Description:
- By secondary structure, the chain is of the alpha/beta class.
- The protein has a single domain, classed as 3-Layer(aba) Sandwich (Rossmann fold).
- The protein is 26% helix and 31% strand.
- The chain is built from five helices and twelve strands.
- It has helices at 12-21, 48-57, 60-69, 79-84, 178-190; strands at residues 2-6, 25-29, 40-43, 74-77, 85-88, 99-104, 115-119, 129-133, 138-142, 147-152, 155-161, 164-167.
- It has a seven-stranded mixed β-sheet.
- The longest helix is centred in the last third of the chain and has 13 residues, at 178-190.
Amino acid sequence: MKIGVLALQGDFEEHLRALEKCGVERMAVRLPQELDEVGGLIIPGGESTTIGKLMDRYGISEKIRQRHAEGMPIYGTCAGLILLAKEIVASQQTRLGLMNITVERNAYGRQIDSFEADVLAPRLGEVPLRAVFIRAPVVREVASSVEVLATHDNVPILIQEGNLLASSFHPELTDDLRVHRYFLDTVRKSL
Length: 191
């Protein structure tokens, strides 16, 4: 099992390190054909508009949609969550539009408003997750097909719809590997 991390912009290196700690084969994905080599894909945090434009420029968007249709699991963090969303409040930016959610970009505030919080995610164990929010999006609406795995102040922050997983926070910036391991379990079940 090899996991790809979209490496066009953002904090892809941190996800590659987290996957290394999980003991799985991983690779930075920059070209569409590289998606054929992986069983799952992580779309990292960063600048969602920039990542979206680069995905389109290099022909990666359509290939991601194709691989998703074939059953490949995808995990998006922060900007990745925005790119997975079908609807983005007050934005026409490029997106993959795979997940039945509505998100609002930077809704927690600017960089200076970044924060950390301990949140409960029962599916991942009894110990709270340390969630790092950096210019994070807010999930405003979820379809009935979307399962909420964790919330902060009654707002969904970790969600799953089939083989799609998304978080508005950055688990790759902590030493807690539970979210990555949960995604790896999703990938294993899809193979």
